[in-house]
Structure formats: structure tokens, C-alpha cells
UniProtKB/TrEMBL annotation:
<protein>
    <recommendedName>
        <fullName>Lipoprotein</fullName>
    </recommendedName>
</protein>
<feature type="signal peptide">
    <location>
        <begin position="1"/>
        <end position="27"/>
    </location>
</feature>
<keyword id="KW-0732">Signal</keyword>
Length: 111
């Protein structure tokens, strides 16, 4: 009996270590910040809480009627700049299921 316990114990430890490492590797949250850079232009920067950027991730400017006013993707520097729409809007940073950030126009910092 003791021999069986010693054989299973390393497998249990390895399994727990693998589970812990995989959850740490997947633990990153989407982040997006938008600032008005002048009267007409807004710049948004996206990324993840682990410090990685988000080049190529979808960032759309959406009207309150759910129409896409400005379709976009983040550039190689994880930013996108767009003309401030005349209609009411919010910014939708969409890096996939569970990785979505919405920023309402009222929450965009003025210059």
C-alpha cells in the first residue's frame, strides 16, 4: 500500500502544478483607453493586463442604435485614431469571447 501512495503522489503534484501554471498563463484581462487628442480626433489604445499589446484586434465605434459608425482594427502599435462622430457613440474593443471592453463617449478623456 505504501508503495502505491508514493507512486501516485508525484503524479498528483505534477498535475496540480500543471493546472496552476495553465491558469496563470491564461490570466490576462483586456484593457482599452481612449483620449480625445483635439476637437475632432480620438485615439484609443488597447492591450492586456499582462502587458501585451493587441495589434489587429477589432475596435469599432458604435452608435447608440447599434450601427457601426467607424469600423476599425488596432494598428501595429495597438492604437487607432478616428474622427469623433457627430452621433452619440461608444467604443467596442473586441478581442474575442470574454475579452470585450466598452467605453461610452462620456468616459473619454478630454484634452
Amino acid at each position: 500500500m505504501t508503495r502505491v501512495s508514493f507512486i501516485r503522489w508525484p503524479a498528483l503534484v505534477l498535475g496540480l502544478l500543471a493546472a496552476a501554471c495553465s491558469s496563470v498563463a491564461l490570466a490576462h484581462n483586456p484593457m482599452c483607453e481612449c483620449k480625445q487628442i483635439d476637437d475632432q480626433q480620438i485615439r484609443c489604445t488597447g492591450g492586456f493586463s499582462d502587458g501585451s499589446g493587441a495589434p489587429g484586434v477589432t475596435l469599432d465605434v458604435v452608435g447608440y442604435d447599434e450601427s457601426i459608425l467607424v469600423p476599425g482594427k488596432l494598428g501595429s502599435d495597438s492604437t487607432v485614431t478616428f474622427k469623433r462622430p457627430d452621433a452619440e457613440f461608444y467604443v467596442l474593443f473586441d478581442a474575442g469571447p470574454g475579452h470585450v471592453v466598452e467605453i461610452d463617449q462620456a468616459d473619454i478623456e478630454a484634452p
